[in-house]
């Protein structure tokens, strides 16, 4: 019986669960570049170039490892345009009797795959997605019966279970979480190392030309493409991160600097999410850096928490709360995404910086995504559907399983607080504390009202006031409401007016 193993574009690992069940002699692996996946949202050009190039390079590794591979290029005559149509075509061509794949990372595709057995009239076996350490069931077991689903408690459980940074039953260093040490601004005399880059080889150059030709109207730049496209290169990115950036990762994790996109972050999300690196490899490498004395606990625990905590949690959270998570809109936010999310043309320097870096690199680090771009979307009441689509398009590490919980759960509070205990809302002073953006800005972060005032300042109070009925009784928000009640009410009134006027300007597409 001959089996077809479908490897999706983000399943680029020799250890993929789908591959491990096939017979190299009799079975075939299929990888295909298809229009349906490349255009279901108009992905950033660099994201498509990265995946297509990584897929082409991975096909060679598969052949080197003895697999029979059918690779369908975007412009091949036999390209059927969608994953199902391509599988159906191959089943007929090769006389396939069974299809196997690992569970897709997006609900829409998983739902589609569930119809394939009936449509193809042969078994289509979906295996667990093993690009994670915990299983979906682990999350469900943990979440079942809970009223609150806080990442911190899930993280403690997985740390215990996988024995990461544990000293018998206690967390190494005496605390589970060293975040309090991880909130420093970058000092002026400190320059983060340059990112690890790879000049495009002939295969990548072909893909870049294809992307320019076929996806020229998609968002984003592609002239400076420099990502890793092989596992060896991705391992190099990880190695250099551990050696050169990890020791300062924790302390400056939240810092933002004018014209600096990469900071002390790891830049491995593209590779982990595409299957090129396993999360455990990154976690064990970081843990080893702590035990060898190379990196301090605040950095190592901070980095491990992002992957073993947040990444695993987000994936479990996604499947647990889908499909409702996609349409949730607890705060009834309806405003349209402003044009400047695409072109960066705004006088708000922090937003302009983050959009420009996103356009240039298909990357922005966590605090830029959360506390600048995300915070604005929350305070300005932007429609979750439009915000989600934007995040899914613009980042090269974006797949719905990780993008949606970060956007609807973490930044927009659209899920009504399943993920976060309170909204991540902040005024301009947070951005000023963590960056030097404000000193390059048209607006003044110190001013609260009037034409020069930082819009984050009045939008913040506009948001707090608008959602009083939802948040006033939240113990974590009580202080804010007490502060608002004690404020000079005339001044508050001016801020609320400015917030309303600003939203009208946004609606009318005026420059802000
Ligand atoms: P580092 O800062 O070096 O962190 C190390 C690793 O931890 C990352 O590579 C990633 O694998 C993991 N990680 C960190 N934070 C998170 C998180 N909140 N959720 C899941 N994994 C995390 N990450 C994605 O991988 N894809 C997305 O589409 C995505 N969308 C986001 C949208 C918003 C609104 C926000 C606030 C965050 C989003 N993140 C997303 C999480 C995070 O911003 C990125 O993982 C990180 O910026 C990637 O850069 P890095 O590899 O340099 O990360
Ligand atoms: C994101 C993406 C893109 C741009 N193109 C392809 C493709 O041509 N072929 C493919 O198999 N996968 C692609 N992907 C990744 C899929 O969209 C991804 O597997 C699903 O969104 C599930 O995460
Ligand atoms: Fe952003 Fe306000 Fe600072 Fe300008 S002043 S950079 S808008 S926080």
From TrEMBL:
SUPFAM superfamilies linked to this entry: Cryptochrome/photolyase FAD-binding domain
Highest taxon, organism lineage: Bacteria
Coiled-coil annotated spans: none
UniProt keyword list: Lyase
Gene3D superfamilies named among the record's database cross-references: 1.25.40.80, Deoxyribodipyrimidine photolyase-related, DNA Cyclobutane Dipyrimidine Photolyase, subunit A, domain 3, HUPs
InterPro entries: Crypto/Photolyase_FAD-like_sf, PhrB-like, Rossmann-like_a/b/a_fold, UV-DNA_repair_photolyase
UniProt GO MF annotations: lyase activity
A Pfam family hit: DPRP
Phylogenetic classification of the source organism: Bacteria, Pseudomonadati, Pseudomonadota, Gammaproteobacteria, Alteromonadales
Name of the protein: Deoxyribodipyrimidine photolyase-related protein
Gene source species: Glaciecola punicea ACAM 611
């Amino acid at each position: 019986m001959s089996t077809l193993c479908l490897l999706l574009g983000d399943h680029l690992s020799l250890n993929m669960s789908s591959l491990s069940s096939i017979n190299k002699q009799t079975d075939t692996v299929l990888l295909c570049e298809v229009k349906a996946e490349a255009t279901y949202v108009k992905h950033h050009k660099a994201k498509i170039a990265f995946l297509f190039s990584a897929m082409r390079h991975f096909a060679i590794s598969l052949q080197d490892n003895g697999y029979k591979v059918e690779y369908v290029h975007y412009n091949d005559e036999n390209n059927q345009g969608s994953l199902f149509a391509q599988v159906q075509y191959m089943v007929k061509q090769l006389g396939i009797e069974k299809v196997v794949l690992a569970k897709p990372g997006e609900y829409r595709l998983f739902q589609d795959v569930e119809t394939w057995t009936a449509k193809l009239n042969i078994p289509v076996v979906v295996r667990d997605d093993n690009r994670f350490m915990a299983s979906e069931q682990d999350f469900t077991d943990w979440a079942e019966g809970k009223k609150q689903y806080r990442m911190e408690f899930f993280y403690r459980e997985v740390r215990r279970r996988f024995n990461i940074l544990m000293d018998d039953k206690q967390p190494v260093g005496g605390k589970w979480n060293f975040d309090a040490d991880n909130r420093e601004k970058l000092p002026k005399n400190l320059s983060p190392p340059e990112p690890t880059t790879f000049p495009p080889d002939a295969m990548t150059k072909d893909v870049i030309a294809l992307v320019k030709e076929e996806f020229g109207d998609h968002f984003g730049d592609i002239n400076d493409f420099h990502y890793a496209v092989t596992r060896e290169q991705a391992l190099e990115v990880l190695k250099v991160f551990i050696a050169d950036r990890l020791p300062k990762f924790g302390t400056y994790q939240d810092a933002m600097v004018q014209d600096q996109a990469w900071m002390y972050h790891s830049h491995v999300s593209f590779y982990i999410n595409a299957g090129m690196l396993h999360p455990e490899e990154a976690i064990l490498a970081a843990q080893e850096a702590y035990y060898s004395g190379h990196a301090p606990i605040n950095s190592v625990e901070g980095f491990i928490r992002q992957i073993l905590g947040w990444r695993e949690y987000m994936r479990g959270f996604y499947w647990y709360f889908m499909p409702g998570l996609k349409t949730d809109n607890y705060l009834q936010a309806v405003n349209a995404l402003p044009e400047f999310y695409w072109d960066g043309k705004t006088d708000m320097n922090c937003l302009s910086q983050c959009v420009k870096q996103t356009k240039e690199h298909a990357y922005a680090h966590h605090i830029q995504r959360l506390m600048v771009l995300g915070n604005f979307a929350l305070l300005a009441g932007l429609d979750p559907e439009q915000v989600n689509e934007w995040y899914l398009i613009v980042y090269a590490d974006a797949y719905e399983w990780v993008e949606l919980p970060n956007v609807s759960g973490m930044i927009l509070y659209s899920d009504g607080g399943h993920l976060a205990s309170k909204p991540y809302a902040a005024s301009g002073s947070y951005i000023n504390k963590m960056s030097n953006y404000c000193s390059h800005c048209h607006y003044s972060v110190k001013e609260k009202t009037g034409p020069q005032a930082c819009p984050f300042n009045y939008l913040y109070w506009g948001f707090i006031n608008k959602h009083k009925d939802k948040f006033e009784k939240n113990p974590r928000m009580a202080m804010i409401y007490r502060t608002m009640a004690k404020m000079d009410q005339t001044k508050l009134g001016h801020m609320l007016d400015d917030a309303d006027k600003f939203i009208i300007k946004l609606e009318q597409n005026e420059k802000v």
